[in-house]
């Protein structure tokens, strides 16, 4: 079936080239220009588009993401289908994932696999860590839908932190999609100049309960000072045994992502890149030095792209408060 899927896919994709280009333009227009006009995060859209793709291609069951995508004005479901239809047909014939989206062997991920692989690695740690936690805090939540899926069945309190504009927009979009959000406490915060913990406590967060803090796809948009301040805030206030899950980017990734047109589009929504680590050599040591410098210890890690000569481009890391 794999050979047949290629035989059908290649001519279909060639025929679809103009449709794919139009679809990509439509998605980019909504993601960049509509987000910018509404004062929203385009990078959060990039993530939910990736997670919708995972759902549609059977890589991850995520009905709530699929529902939310259809209610967001700053992405285009039609555009996504225009881009991905030939690959979807190929997937349906072969039952295998190729080109995009795919879940490569750990260590051999490329930058194109970023959202897909990163989401799966975070899922794995979250599944284990939430088994021992009573609270789940999504920091820089964007359109993350983990609090609305399987986790919702667990006896756990949910909090979402984000900038006010993005959070209000998510709430309105959840409402239009008919998704209940009563079980989640929404706390608006700017990690750059506000005390996230003070606001969390005001909204009912219990500092004596073990907590999983998820900080996915956010550190790269902050300065080192902001990243360290937020980590210190958590370490100084959260219960022992709590964990902070984050992705920390290699300087080489930041350099790549800030080249040319990509930089211009990020500037459009004020999402310039900043904090990174030099993961080109001795990456495990660089990471543990960083985590230990904030008096936390390293738990599970996924160094994505570590088989590359230039070292990993990002690490998904569990930081433990002990
Ligand atoms: C790439 S998105 C990731 C969204 C989400 N974590 C996910 O994985 O779907 C980055 C998110 O970080 C938030 N963010 C960026 N800088 C922030 C800041 N200084 N304070 C609060 N949130 C911030 C953005 O609003 C956006 O929702």
For the structure shown, list the relevant keywords.
Ppm1/Ppm2/Tcmp; transmembrane; single chain; Rossmann fold; 7 strands; methyltransferase; S-adenosyl-L-methionine; membrane; seven-stranded mixed β-sheet; 322 residues; alpha/beta
Average pLDDT metric: 95
Q: Class of the largest domain, according to the CATH hierarchy? A: Alpha Beta
CATH homologous superfamily identity of the largest domain: Vaccinia Virus protein VP39
How large is the share of residues in beta strands?
A: 5-15%
Shape: globular
- Cα-atom Rg, whole angstroms? 20 Å
Ions, cofactors and other ligands present here are: S-adenosylmethionine
Total number of domains = 2
Distance between the termini: 51 Å
List SSEs in N-to-C order: HHHHHHEEHEHEHEHHHEE
* CATH architecture annotation of the largest domain: 3-Layer(aba) Sandwich
* DSSP strand tally: 7
Question: Helix- and strand-based class?
Answer: alpha/beta
**Approximately how much helix is present in the residues?**
40-55%
Q: What's the CATH topology name of the largest domain?
A: Rossmann fold
**Widest β-sheet, arrangement of strands:** 3-2-1-4-5-7-6
Number of contiguous helices? 12
Quaternary status:
single chain
Instruction: Give the uncertain stretches in residue-range form.
Output: none
Largest sheet: 7 strands, mixed
């Amino acid at each position: 079936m794999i050979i047949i899927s290629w035989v059908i896919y290649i001519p279909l994709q060639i025929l679809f080239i103009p449709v794919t280009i139009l679809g990509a333009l439509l998605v980019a227009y909504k993601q960049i220009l509509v987000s910018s006009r509404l004062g929203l995060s385009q990078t959060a859209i990039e993530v939910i588009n990736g997670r919708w793709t995972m759902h549609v291609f059977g890589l991850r069951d995520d009905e709530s993401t699929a529902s939310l995508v259809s209610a967001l004005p700053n992405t285009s479901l039609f555009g996504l289908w225009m881009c991905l239809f030939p690959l979807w047909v190929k997937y349906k014939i072969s039952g295998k994932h190729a080109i995009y989206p795919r879940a490569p062997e750990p260590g051999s991920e490329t930058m194109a696999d970023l959202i897909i692989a990163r989401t799966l690695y975070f899922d794995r740690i979250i599944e284990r860590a939430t088994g021992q936690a009573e609270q789940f805090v999504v920091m820089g939540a964007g359109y993350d839908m983990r609090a609305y899926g399987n986790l919702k069945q667990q006896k756990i309190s949910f909090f979402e932190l984000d900038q006010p504009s993005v959070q209000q927009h998510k709430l309105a979009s959840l409402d239009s999609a008919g998704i209940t959000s009563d079980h989640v406490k929404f706390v608006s915060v700017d990690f750059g100049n506000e005390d996230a913990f003070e606001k969390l406590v005001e909204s009912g967060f219990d500092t004596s309960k073990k907590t999983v803090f998820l900080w996915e796809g956010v550190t790269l948009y902050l300065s080192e000072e902001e990243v360290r301040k937020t980590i210190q805030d958590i370490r100084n206030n959260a219960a022992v045994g709590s964990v902070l899950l984050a992705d920390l980017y290699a300087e080489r990734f930041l350099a790549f992502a800030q080249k040319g047109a990509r930089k211009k589009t990020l500037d459009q929504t004020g999402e310039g890149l900043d904090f990174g680590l030099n993961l080109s050599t001795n990456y495990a040591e660089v990471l543990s030095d960083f985590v230990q410098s904030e008096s936390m210890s390293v738990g599970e890690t996924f160094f994505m792209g570590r088989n590359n000569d230039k070292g990993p481009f990002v690490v998904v890391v569990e930081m433990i408060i002990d």
